[in-house]
Automatic annotation (TrEMBL):
Keyword Hydrolase appears in the UniProt entry: yes
Protein name in the entry: protein-tyrosine-phosphatase
Pfam family, one: CpsB_CapC
GO MF: manganese ion binding; protein tyrosine phosphatase activity
Catalytic class of the enzyme: hydrolase
Length: 249
């Protein structure tokens, strides 16, 4: 190999440019500034959304946290933030459709809201994105999904590959699969961003044909920087071939 070949990088694997046009809709992100652990400024939000548009995303459903102890958001605070974000996007001439739902944390307060018939922020009028803690299984996990369904909602289980309690609980995993609970995986999980165990479990869910939705779960610029490496990983093309529900949202 010549010196010129070395300088030009000959013999090394070239990174394929990331293209998310096949995804169409990014249905999990934290882009409304200053209301959770996501974007902390309007400039950051505009920059992130601009990058998503360049990657081929046509529509964004951003999903701020609603957590009793930490992020006490409500439909009011989220939709007000969405209005401000839309105005800023228009001012900067960023052409993208953007809506807002929420990422609800499954706890007793959330269950009280569901059982009381409180209106929740949804995607497509029916889908509700929910999450749990990463280490311990909630005692009322399956009951929570059932309660949502009784109210006419369809629960989406946010990033199940990140729940370590699920990795070794075959009975629980089978119960969720048998119930037809929709699994939404994070694209970054397939890069190893959250660790090897999460990546391995995320790949397992794809092979089991259980991943029905994908999202960036973008919180900041660092997430999007890491996402550029997705094409270097073997499951990138498997993800592109999935029969996803994203485009229906």
């Amino acid at each position: 190999m010549s010196l010129l070949d070395l300088l030009l990088g000959s013999g090394t694997k070239q990174r394929e440019a990331l293209d998310l046009s096949w995804l169409g809709v990014d249905m999990h992100s934290h882009l409304i500034p200053g209301i959770d652990d996501g974007s902390q400024s309007m400039d950051e939000s505009i920059t992130m959304i601009g990058r998503l548009v360049k990657l081929g995303i046509k529509k964004i459903i951003t999903t701020p946290h609603i957590m009793t102890e930490f992020y006490k958001n409500s439909p009011g605070t989220i939709l007000t933030g969405l209005d401000d974000l839309r105005a800023a996007l228009k001012a900067y001439d960023v052409d993208v459709e953007i809506e807002a739902a929420a990422e609800y944390y499954l706890d007793e307060i959330f269950m009280q809201k569901v059982e009381a018939g409180e209106k929740l922020l949804t995607m497509g009028g029916q889908y509700v994105l929910v999450e749990t803690g990463f280490m311990s299984k909630p005692q009322m996990l399956l009951e929570s999904f059932f309660a949502l369904e009784l109210q006419g909602y369809t629960p989406i289980f946010a990033h199940p590959e990140r729940y370590l309690y699920l990795h070794n609980d075959e009975k629980l995993l089978k119960s969720l699969m048998d119930r037809g609970i929709l699994f939404q995986a994070n694209l970054l999980s397939y890069t190893g961003y959250y660790g090897k165990a999460v990546k391995k479990f995320a790949e397992r869910l794809v092979d089991a044909k259980q991943v029905m939705l994908l999202g960036t779960d973008a919180h900041n610029i660092k997430y999007l920087d890491a996402l550029e490496d997705l094409t270097m990983h073997k499951y990138y093309h498997k993800l592109r071939a999935l029969p996803l529900l994203n485009s229906s949202l």
